[in-house]
Amino acid sequence: MSFDPVRDILEINVLLLQNIHTVQHQISQHRCKLYVYQRERWSLDEEQLLQNLLAQFGKEDLKKISQIMISKTQRQIYHRAKSETKSLIAKIK
Predict the structure, then answer these.
(1) What are the φ/ψ torsions at residue 58 (nearest 5 degrees)?
(2) How far apart are CA 31 and CA 37, in angstroms?
(3) 8 vs 15, 30, 33, CA distance in Å?
(4) Model pTM score
């Protein structure tokens, strides 16, 4: 296998995009599970659910929780991409 930096970078970018999509999907699934759980438990509509979450956590805490989730997701993507990049480079060598 020949060394082609452009092709390798494109492959790495494809892997990164796939990972981002996967993690975003997982976050959406967890968020949906929380919504469904709270809706079923308390029979809430979207507006009531949002008000309930705001009452539970407060606006600033919800922002902090969102930032923590985003940071955690970014770290997961970075580490997964780093690992897959090492694997890809090992295959190329």
Answers:
(1) 85, 155
(2) 10
(3) 11, 33, 37
(4) 0.37
